Amino acid sequence: MIKRIAKFAKDSGQPIPTTPGELAQCIFASLALHYARIAEVLAECSGLAMPAIHIVGGGSQNSLLSQLTADISGLEVIAGPVEATAMGNAIVQAIALGEIASLEDGRKIIGASDLGIKSYLPSQDGEIRSAISGLQIRYEALIN
C-alpha cells in the first residue's frame, strides 16, 4: 500500500509521504475527504439533508479519523458502536424469535445501552477551517 500511495502522489504531482506520520495523515485525510464526499452525494441523490455521519465498527475507535471527518464534512460524526454488525444481527434474531416486536424497538434498546458512542463536532477554528478548505480544493481537483 505504501508504494501505491507514493506512486499516486508522484503521478498526481503531490508531495510523497515518506514518514509513518505523513503516511498516516495521508490515509486519514483521504478517508475523511471520501466520507464527506459520499455524504454530499447521498444528500444530493436523496434530496434530504445529511444531519450526521455515523461511523461504526472498528473505524469508530479512531478519534483522529472521526474528528477529521467532522472537520472536513462540516457535519457531526457519531462514532460507534464498535460491534454494530453483531448487535444488528442479535436484534434481527430477537425479532425472528418474537422477543422484540420490531426493528424500531431494537433500535430503542441499542440506543438506551451504554455502548461508548461518541460525538464529534466540526472545529470552528479559522486556521483549521482554512487548512481544510485547501485540502478540499486539492481533493476535488484530483477526483474530477
CATH superfamily: ATPase, nucleotide binding domain
Instruction: Summarize model confidence as the mean pLDDT.
Output: 92
Number of helices: 6
Number of strands: 3
Sheet with the most strands: spatial strand order: 1-2-3
- Just name the CATH architecture: 2-Layer Sandwich
What does the largest sheet look like? Answer: 3 strands, mixed
For the termini, the CA-CA separation is 23 Å
Strand and helix order: HHEHEHHEH
Beta-strand portion reads: 5-15%
Q: How many separate domains make up the residues?
A: 1
Query: Nearest-angstrom radius of gyration?
Result: 18 Å
Give the overall form.
elongated
Return the structural class.
mainly alpha
Helix content: 55-70%
Low-confidence stretches: none
CATH fold naming? Nucleotidyltransferase, domain 5
CATH class: Alpha Beta
